[in-house]
C-alpha cells in the first residue's frame, strides 16, 4: 500500500493533527489534509477510510503487538507478567514522532466529542485484544478481563506521562508504561 | 420537561430500540421514532438532542448515583466497599423495562459502529465519575483509577448476566453487579 510514496501515511497524520489544531476537527476536510501532506485524495483513501480513523491509525498495530507479546510470554509468566510483555512489545511501536504529536493529538481529541468516542472505543479494543490473548494462555475469564483493563490503564497513564514528561534518561515509552503497571499492581493491594 | 406527557421519555426509548431492531440504526429517523412513540418531533427534542444520545440516556443519572453512593459510603469503607455502595445505588435505577429492552439494545449496538463508540464513551464516563468520587474521599489517584475501572467492569458484567439470565430469585440488578465485583476482587489476587 502506497510504497511508491514513502512516508505518505506519516505525513498525512502530521498534516491532519496540525489542521485539527489550527482550525478544529469539524472544519477540516480530507482534501485539506491531503493537500497539506502533499498527496492526492486517492492516496489519503488508500491509507484511511476517513479523517476520524486517521487519529486511531495505530489501533490495529497496537492490538496485534499487545496480543503477540502476551502469547509469546514464557509459559510460567503470571497474567500481569504476560500483560507487561505485551505492553513492552506495543510500546516499541511508538517513537519520537508519536511523542511530538501527542500534545496536539490530545488537544484535538479534547475538542471533539466525535473523537472522544472513537478514542474510547480504541481503549475498549485494546483491552479486548489483551483479554483474548490471556484467555488463549488459559487465564480464567474474569482474571483475563481484569488484567486487560489494567493493561489499558497502564498504557494510557504511561503514554500520558511519556508525552508530557521531560526528555530525560527514561526516554522510551515502555519504561513509563511498565512503571505505571507496577504502580497499579501495588495499588490493587489497597483496594480493600 | 415534558411533564404534560407522562412516560414520553420511556416510550421514545422503547420505540427507538424497536425501530433500530426492525430496520437498523442508520435507517431510523427521529421523525419515525417520535411517530412510533405517539409524540411530536418537538417532544423528542425536549428529551434528547439526537437519536444516538437516546441510547445512552441513563448515563448522567448513573454517573450521579455512582458518585452519590461512593461519597456517602461510611468513612471507614475501603475503596472497593465505596465502589460497591455506588454500584448498589446506581443499580436501583435499572428496572424491568431496562431488563426487557437489554437484548434488543445490545443487538442495536452490536450492529452499529457509531453506537459502539458512544457506548464505549459511556463506560469511560462512568469510570471517571467513580474515580473522581473516590479521590474526593481521599483515595490516592492510582488506587481510585483502578477501583473506578473495576466498578465499570463489575457493572457491565453484572448487567450482561442480569439481562441474559433466568428470571430467578436473584432478580435485582444490584445482586448481579455486586457478585461480579466480588469475583473481580477475588481475581485480582491471582494477577501475579
Write the layout of secondary structure elements.
Two copies of one chain form a homodimer.
Chain A: H1 8-23, H2 30-37, H3 41-47, H4 51-54, H5 59-71, H6 79-91, H7 96-110, H8 113-136, H9 141-164, H10 173-188
What's the short version?
The structure is a homodimer of 192-residue chains. Chain A has 192 residues and is mostly helical.
Structural account:
The structure is a homodimer of 192-residue chains. The first copy, chain A, has 192 residues and is mostly helical. In chain A, 73% of the residues lie in helices and 0% in strands. Chain A is elongated, with a radius of gyration of 18 Å. The A-B interface holds A 77-81, 116-118, 120-121, 123-124, 140, 142-143, 145-147, 149-150, 153, 157, 183-188, 190-192 and B 77-81, 116-118, 120-121, 123-124, 140, 142-143, 145-147, 149-150, 153, 157, 183-188, 190-192.
In helices, the fraction of residues of chain A equals: over 70%
The two chains with the largest interface, and their residue counts, are:
A-B, 31 and 31 residues
Structural class call of chain A reads mainly alpha
Most strands sheet of chain A: none
From the coordinates shown, what is the CATH architecture of the largest domain in chain A? Orthogonal Bundle
The CATH top-level class label of the largest domain in chain A: Mainly Alpha
Number of domains of chain A: 2
Q: Could you tell me the number of beta strands of chain A?
A: 0
Domain HTH tetR-type (chains A, B): 6-66
GO molecular function, one term (chains A, B): DNA-binding transcription factor activity
Pfam families (chains A, B): TetR_N
DNA-binding region (chains A, B): 29-48
Amino acid at each position: 500500500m502506497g510504497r511508491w510514496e514513502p512516508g505518505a501515511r506519516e505525513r498525512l497524520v502530521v498534516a491532519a493533527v496540525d489542521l485539527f489544531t489550527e482550525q478544529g476537527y469539524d472544519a477540516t476536510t480530507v482534501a485539506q489534509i491531503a493537500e497539506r501532506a502533499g498527496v492526492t485524495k486517492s492516496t489519503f483513501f488508500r491509507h484511511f477510510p476517513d479523517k476520524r480513523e486517521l487519529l486511531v491509525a495505530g489501533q490495529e498495530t497496537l492490538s496485534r503487538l499487545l496480543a503477540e507479546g502476551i502469547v509469546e510470554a514464557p509459559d510460567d509468566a503470571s497474567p500481569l507478567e504476560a500483560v507487561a510483555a505485551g505492553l513492552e512489545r506495543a510500546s516499541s511501536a511508538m517513537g519520537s514522532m508519536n511523542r511530538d504529536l501527542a500534545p496536539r493529538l490530545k488537544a484535538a481529541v479534547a475538542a471533539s466529542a466525535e473523537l472522544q468516542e472513537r478514542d474510547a472505543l480504541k481503549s475498549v479494543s485494546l483491552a479486548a485484544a489483551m483479554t483474548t490473548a490471556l484467555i488463549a494462555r488459559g487465564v480464567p475469564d474474569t482474571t483475563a478481563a481484569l488484567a486487560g483493563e489494567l493493561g489499558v490503564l497502564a498504557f494510557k497513564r504511561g503514554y500520558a506521562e511519556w508525552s508530557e514528561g521531560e526528555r530525560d534518561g527514561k526516554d522510551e515509552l515502555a519504561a513509563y508504561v511498565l512503571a505505571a503497571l507496577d504502580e497499579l499492581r501495588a495499588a490493587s493491594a489497597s483496594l480493600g
